[in-house]
Amino acid sequence: MQSHTSTLAPPHGGGAPTAVGTDQAPRFYDDGTHHPEQGTLLGFWMYLMSDSLIFAVLFIVYAVQGRAYAAGPSGADLFDLPLVAVNTALLLLSSITYGFAMISMQHQRKAGVLKWLAITGLLGLGFLGIELYEFQHLIHEGAGPQRSAFLSSFFTLVGTHGLHVTFGTIWLVTLMVQVSKHGLIAENRRRLICLSMFWHFLDVIWIGVFTFVYLMGVLP
Predict the structure, then answer these.
(1) How far apart are the two ends of the chain, measured CA to CA in Å?
(2) DSSP characters for 26-42?
(3) What separation in angstroms does the CA of 152 have from each of 29, 58, 96, 208?
(4) Residue 54 forms part of a structural domain
(5) Structure pTM?
(6) Coil, strand or helix: which one is 8?
(7) Residue 98, class by beta-carbon neighbours within 10 Å (0-12 exposed, 13-18 middle, 19+ buried)?
(8) What is the pLDDT of residues 141-182, one digit of tens each?
(9) Which tens digits make up the pLDDT trace of 178-192?
(10) Quick check: is 150 in a domain?
(11) How far apart are CA 207 and CA 211, in angstroms?
């Protein structure tokens, strides 16, 4: 007698699998209806909160070690506030241009999104260029991270933020390629929203760095 196995197959319209007579292996189908619509955004908010804890720890370390000069130079001796102000303006302006990219996305203007993303990326690269110049200048003057606890905490805090901007710029370029290739599909729109939250988050962190590290650092 020939055996006949019963396997599971989905009913019409998706849902739970049903048993049908067939010799094939069980197959399960997922129509995506059980996934939360805002799951990605919720997960990204959780990531930003965890990143906030990292920067909070770095700010606390700087608050403790920010006056430990070890008979070396202080912030008043090292910081070039006009240059840092230009750098701050570049990053804040990049947040505005990214906002224009989001407006273009809402109006389904692919070319506008790509244009404003490109401008945002150039501003981000300008920010990184000035920051690297500042680091190189400090190290050349003998004020590297090994000179004192103050400089160790300074390089760690500012460098961590710069590393985030670097990753954000790489993400931005990758997203430009995806939008150029696939257009403003739902997946790319969601990615644009996540990158927007990340980029604005970096702006908020930098405002704290500019105020707490640089402005307060030049005080006697």
Answers:
(1) 96
(2) P-----STTS-TTHHHH
(3) 54, 11, 32, 18
(4) no
(5) 0.81
(6) strand
(7) buried
(8) 999 999 999 999 999 999 999 999 999 999 999 999 999 999
(9) 999 999 999 999 999
(10) yes
(11) 6
